[in-house]
User: Fold this.
Amino acid sequence: MAPPPRTTPARFRTAHWIQVSFAAAVGLTVAVLLVAGPGEQGTILALKATARLAFLPFWFAYAGAALVSLFGPALKPLPRHARELGLSFAAIECVHLALVAWLCLLGHPPGLRTFLVFGTAILFVGLLTLCSISSLRARLGKTGWWLLRVIGMNYVAYAFAIDFLRGPLAGGLGHAVFYWPFAALAIIGPGLRVAALAQGLARPTNPSPAAMGTTAPPR
Ligand code: HEM
Assistant:
């Protein structure tokens, strides 16, 4: 009898992160659509909900290395799992995109500006996801991969920020609960990276990973 195929534990773990994140996004979407209905309003609410869910793994992938540089090695599991966090974010974005497609089918496509700004963000998510495959990443070279990460991650952070920071004083308590915590994180994330960069520059002989703009060591 042929021996059972060998699975690398790391690969298995990554697949698990992706599956759990995707399932959570699908579950959240189904729950929102059941409560709010599958029409335009329900779909927009589900888009807002999946965007917030996606923001969590993205934020920890984005700020993880800076958190370690600033607050110490106890937080090292964050940058160590940056790849898994990033892929979890991408898996949730797939559900977000399915909802965009559903909104279009309902006859309420988003405006051109949304397609341009967020389409660019999705392009970066796609490129970063493709480059999580080591053979493709190797083609970029170290500098290319570093540039893609710095530009791509910061652009996606910017895309989140412009949505969460929209009309901060509008809509009363509901708006505050639904927006302010995410708006705060959207500001704190880049702030942490800048602080870690400054700290790294102050110690030029031993620049921190965040100072180098990395969220995880190159694999
Ligand atoms: C990485 C890519 C993306 C990010 C970071 C992102 C982020 C967000 C955020 C933060 C929200 C919540 C807005 C709110 O609560 O007011 C949202 C909702 C939404 N997104 Fe995305 N999105 C992305 C991709 C896309 C794409 C490609 C489209 C379509 C072209 C899109 C269309 C929408 C729509 C229509 C909503 C509902 C907005 C509303 O009417 O309030 N998103 N997205």
User: Anything to note?
Assistant: The radius of gyration is 19 Å. DSSP finds seven helices and no strands in the chain. The chain has one domain: 20-202.
